[in-house]
Structures are given as structure tokens and as C-alpha cells.
Specification:
By secondary structure, this protein is mainly α. The chain is built from 14 helices and four strands. It folds into two domains: about 70 residues, Dna Ligase, domain 1 (2-Layer Sandwich); about 190 residues, no CATH class.
């Protein structure tokens, strides 16, 4: 992990080497930027770090842009206003190629994630003791999910990756990933409460009268729609919150805000991507559930290719 001194003389970090490379590609830091790492034992210019020599060799000196948004919104200032293209077919196709060309690594990493999630879900059904595993699942879900995104992004960017990277969320951003997951879940659930209230009244009336009537049924269906619409909208809008937290080292609220703003530019396209990924995973479940070990990596990979298209500077996107 690294820290830097911005042009405003403030300290930012800790951040990963990948984040420093991203900032350098965007012209936000250069070879003269003061960087600290534990291994270096102090502050040195970025150019003094051999691991970044290849990055800086072909780059002329540029003015350092104060990374005033690094800790709170680690994105280029103009990114949230910039438009983007999202090709759903290409995202899925690139994800398939990623799995095919790195089958053992990608399959193994995502399979371990699924087994952990499935194991916790199964243990949560144990009477009484299941409450402990339910709580564990709630605490671990965000960091685990963030780790899988980190693992896949390294593969997409042709960076060294290993199966252990799926646990990177516990090391790099445990608290923020936990908060990002829980806050999104709570706010999404709360948004459904008005619809649930509308739905509950006619259901209660029908139970009391021991019979079903057309009017109450229609009201209950309306309530279900009122509950589902905001849940779907918020789930799609915040879908990239965890990737932003783990990849850009952002706090959970700025990450949620950035995801909302970027997805909002082409909300229906992002929904379409999620529907396609869901259908791909459905095929895996139909195949005796075993197929999900093959389809889930494709769906997650497609989401991360979409993330690259939406949140990366044009010059730094993966071809």
C-alpha cells in the first residue's frame, strides 16, 4: 500500500499500486509526486520506485492535479459529467474470453466465493445456531463480493492475479465494503416499505374474511409493484458501489453517489446488462445448479467489463 502528497500538500491514501497507476495514466500524478510505502521506509518521488519505472519511462512531466477527491471520490473530476458507451454483447463476450483464457484461475476463484456464500447460507438454516451464521454472512458478504470484483479486475487489466485475491476486501477496505453492502441493503429495503404497506392491507382483509376478492387482489398486486419499482431502481443505481470502494479506495457514501450518477446516464442499459447476466446465471441453475459455477464467472466478469467502460478514462480502458 502507498500514500502520496498531493499538490495541495495534503496526504492521501493508503492506496494500491493499481490506483497509483490509474492516477498516473490520468495525469493526476507524475514522477515528482512524493510517495510513501512501508518497504521504501520513507517518502520518495514516484520515479524512485522501480515498480513504476515502466509506467513513467514514456511519460513527459505533467502538472500534478491536486487529488482532492481521492479519499472521498477517487475519480477524475470530469468523469461524472462525461458520457460513456456500454456494449452489453461485448461485455459478455469479453467475459467469456476471460474465463476461457484463464479458466483454472477464474473458475477456481469464483467457485471458492460461491462455496463460501452457499455454505454460510446453508448453515444459516440451522435452528438457533443459524442466527450466528446469518450474522456472519451479513458481515462477510460485502468484503467477499468486493474481493471477487478486485480479483476479476486484475485479470481484466492483465495484472498478476491469484485465487487468494478474492479475500482482498478484508485487507484493503473491510469497513467500507461492509458499510457499502449494509447501507445499500437497508436503503433498498426501506424503499419497499410503502408498497409492502399497500399490499398488506388487502391481504389482511382477505384473511379476515376467509376469501379472495378481485378488488383486494388487484390492490395487493399494485402494492407489490410499488414495492418492487424503487427496489429495482436503487439496486441498479448502486450496483457499482462495491467495485468503486475496492478499486478506487473510496468511502462507501461517495462510491454510492458516483455509481448513482454514472449509472443514471444510461440506467436502462445497465438494467439490461444485469438482466442478461441474470438470465445467464438462470441457465446455470437449470443445469442441476452445477452450471452456475460456469455461468456466474461470466456474469460477474461482464459486470466488471461494464465497470471499466463506465468508470475508466477512455485512454486507460482495457481493449
Amino acid at each position: 500500500m502507498y500514500k502520496i502528497i498531493g499538490a495541495d500538500k495534503k496526504e492521501y491514501g493508503p492506496v494500491t499500486a493499481e490506483q497509483l497507476r490509474q492516477w498516473a495514466a490520468e495525469g493526476r500524478i507524475n514522477g515528482q509526486t512524493s510517495v510513501w510505502s512501508e518497504l521504501a521506509g520513507g517518502w520518495k518521488p514516484l520515479a524512485a520506485f522501480p515498480e513504476f519505472a515502466d509506467l513513467l519511462a514514456s511519460k513527459p512531466p505533467v502538472a500534478i492535479e491536486p487529488p482532492s477527491s481521492i479519499g472521498q471520490a477517487g475519480l477524475p473530476p470530469d468523469l461524472l459529467t462525461r458520457d460513456y458507451d456500454l456494449d452489453i454483447g461485448r461485455c459478455v463476450g469479453d467475459s467469456w474470453n476471460l474465463l476461457k483464457n484463464n479458466f483454472g484461475l477464474v473458475f477456481g476463484g469464483v467457485a471458492i466465493f460461491l462455496l463460501i456464500q452457499g455454505g454460510l447460507g446453508g448453515l444459516a438454516n440451522i435452528p438457533i445456531a443459524g442466527l450466528v451464521f446469518s450474522l456472519a454472512s451479513l458481515i462477510l458478504a460485502g468484503p467477499l463480493m468486493g474481493g471477487v470484483y478486485y480479483f476479476l479486475l486484475r485479470g481484466i487489466r492483465h495484472q498478476p492475479a491469484e485465487i487468494g485475491d478474492i479475500f482482498a476486501g478484508f485487507r484493503l477496505a473491510f469497513g467500507q465494503l461492509l458499510l457499502g453492502y449494509i447501507v445499500v441493503a437497508i436503503l433498498t429495503g426501506v424503499s419497499a416499505l410503502p408498497g409492502i404497506a399497500v399490499m398488506a392491507v388487502p391481504i389482511y382483509m382477505m384473511v379476515q374474511h376467509h376469501g379472495a376478492e378481485v378488488g383486494p387482489i388487484l390492490v395487493a398486486l399494485l402494492g407489490a409493484i410499488v414495492a418492487m419499482v424503487p427496489m429495482i431502481y436503487l439496486s441498479v443505481s448502486w450496483v457499482f458501489s462495491l467495485p468503486l470502494i475496492i478499486d478506487r479506495q473510496m468511502d462507501f457514501w461517495p462510491a454510492m453517489s458516483a455509481s448513482w450518477k454514472r449509472v443514471g446516464k444510461h440506467w436502462w442499459l445497465v438494467l439490461g446488462l444485469l438482466v442478461v447476466c441474470g438470465l445467464i446465471n438462470l441457465v446455470g441453475f437449470i443445469a442441476c445448479c452445477v452450471g452456475v459455477f460456469f455461468t456466474f464467472p461470466i456474469g460477474l466478469g461482464a459486470m466488471m467489463y461494464a465497470y471499466e467502460s463506465i468508470f475508466s478514462a477512455p485512454a486507460s480502458r482495457t481493449a
